[in-house]
Amino acid sequence: MTSALERQVGAVVGAPGYGKTVLTSQVIAGHRRVLILQPWTHKNEYKAQRVTSYAALFGFLMRHGHGPFTVTYTPHPAEVPYIYMLVWALQMDSLKRHGGTPDPILMVLEEATTYMVKATKNADGTWIYRKGVTPDEFTHLTERGRHLQVSIILTTQRPFNLPLDLRATLDWVMAFHLPLKHDRAWFQDFAPSVPGLGDELLPLPKLRFRKVTQGGIVTNGEIQF
What we know:
The chain has one domain (2-222): P-loop containing nucleotide triphosphate hydrolases (Rossmann fold). Helix content is 29%, strand content 24%. The chain is built from seven helices and eleven strands. It has helices spanning 2-5, 20-29, 54-64, 80-97, 136-144, 164-167, 181-190, and strands at 9-13, 33-37, 49-50, 69-73, 105-109, 117-121, 127-131, 150-156, 172-175, 208-213, 218-222. Strand 3 (49-50), helix 3 and strand 4 form a beta-alpha-beta unit.
């Protein structure tokens, strides 16, 4: 599974309790270098080392960024663009260290809608946040980062709330049970050449998913332990 996901951007979507975390954990286990952004501080489902500030994350990656590592952080919205730039800088350094072939890195955005925010600082030092917008730094990372061996996985319960332009950057979507019609419509729109695709996600049992690629190739899957 790991080699198939490297240098790609994908989404794992579905209702809580149906297998998103289990599947993402299995993908994480196949990578040496993993950065996880989570919107909560009270859970650590991936058994990652937790840092509690941007300065601590920066220091950790400066010391251990060439791996192996699995680290998680809950950022303030204003910090998110800088984290995307930090991953880019880390891979540029890896490019130099490895003579043209960077060491792959996986970035996981847990409940990814949290990180689709553009932050603008006012003259008085306050911040304005525009939600539901793909940050320029993230777009840069998805468009050019794959050449630096950057893979990204977005997870969300509500894919309908992701920015529309983000869907075009995805190489694949793995969808578990989606009970809400807007989310099923989002999945259908990702692969319009496959009629009825979204409706089939309503009765999916736990641990079963459908994977669709940007080219419309559909496969059925079930998590194996």
